Q: What sequence folds into this?
């Protein structure tokens, strides 16, 4: 099996020696020395693959947002401390907010989805919003999905998409994924066929198989939490390959390229350094007509995190060669226009993945 073929099919992830505490395959576990280079997609491009996009655009951009929290659940002690600080700074509204939060968690105004929705709608850009559908008491439960009706309505009116953000235990449990999907479908009133798991928890190839069996169209979990770039060398959407069955899995993966917290939480970069790295990634993807997927959490739109997002957003919307699409819109277009051609080149250049 060729090195490129191993990388495309994520062969090293089938029996990893160790995973992190969230059972994730982290970038430092990979034997690929070029994780910041789309080497498999570039190889396809160099062998004649030329993806096409709507309106003749050169590459695609998918903005997405994981809705992890709406209510401020920092805890009693933290709110008392913050309230005292606010009083010292003569910030009465903030002090009142923190005092109320001691008694009952309040909706954090900085985490409201309206800011993202309004910004995207202003520029006629569709995006995808992934919602958790957890029960009270489950890890990271923060809001009840059946209270999100006003947001669902606004997202739909803006031409954006609603997707499922699987909880901590869902990635490895088909029944849990389905139960959460049914709750979300009941709450939003439409079929849900797009997925990303919380904390990017993922099992290769098990999560793909679960999603395939449940009839999902696409997944967009597959990226490193601790590094932007290309987990299997791809910036093109692809059908995963399962070594245990020697066959493609019938689900489209939109590889996750850029996640907000990767820059500061995992890599320790400031705004300037983060933007330099982001721009290099965006330019590399554009050169080979790729797809740039971006995850920005709804609680990361203030302070330096918000400044970085606006720099990225403003940089991209100025590019007339970018096609902005929701994850589902991109997935359906790719399956029809690009996937057959790409897989034909894959089979020719990678010694026929199907019969490996």
A:
């Amino acid at each position: 099996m060729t090195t490129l073929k191993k990388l495309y099919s994520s062969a090293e992830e089938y029996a990893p020696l160790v995973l992190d505490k969230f059972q994730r395959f982290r970038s430092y576990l990979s034997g690929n020395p070029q994780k910041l280079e789309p080497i498999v997609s570039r190889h396809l491009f160099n062998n004649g693959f030329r993806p096409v996009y709507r309106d003749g655009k050169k590459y695609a951009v998918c903005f997405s947002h994981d809705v992890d929290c709406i209510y401020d659940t920092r805890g009693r002690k933290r709110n008392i401390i913050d309230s005292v600080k606010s009083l010292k700074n003569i910030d009465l509204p903030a002090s009142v907010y923190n005092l109320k939060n001691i008694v009952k968690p309040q909706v954090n105004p900085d985490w409201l989805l309206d800011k993202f929705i309004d910004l995207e709608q202003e520029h006629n850009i569709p995006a995808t919003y992934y919602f958790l559908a957890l029960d009270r008491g489950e890890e990271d439960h923060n809001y009840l999905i059946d209270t999100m009706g006003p947001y669902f309505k606004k997202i739909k009116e803006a031409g954006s998409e609603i997707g499922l953000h699987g909880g901590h235990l869902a990635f490895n449990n088909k029944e849990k994924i389905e139960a959460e999907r049914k709750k979300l479908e009941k709450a939003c009133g439409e079929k849900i066929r797009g997925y990303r798991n919380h904390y990017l928890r993922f099992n290769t190839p098990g999560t793909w198989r679960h999603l395939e069996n449940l009839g999902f169209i696409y997944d967009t979990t597959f990226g490193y939490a601790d590094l932007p770039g290309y987990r299997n060398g791809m910036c093109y959407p692809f059908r995963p390959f399962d070594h245990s069955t020697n066959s493609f899995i019938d689900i489209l993966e939109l590889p996750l390229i850029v996640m907000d917290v990767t820059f500061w939480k995992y890599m320790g970069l400031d705004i300037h350094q983060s933007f330099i790295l982001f721009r290099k990634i965006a330019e590399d993807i554009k050169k080979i007509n790729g797809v740039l997927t971006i995850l920005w959490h709804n609680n990361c739109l203030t302070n330096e995190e918000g400044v970085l997002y606006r720099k990225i957003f403003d940089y991209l919307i100025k590019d007339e060669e970018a096609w902005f699409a929701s994850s589902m819109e991109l997935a359906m277009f790719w399956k029809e226009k690009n996937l057959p051609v790409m897989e034909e080149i894959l089979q020719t250049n990678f010694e026929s993945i199907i019969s490996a």
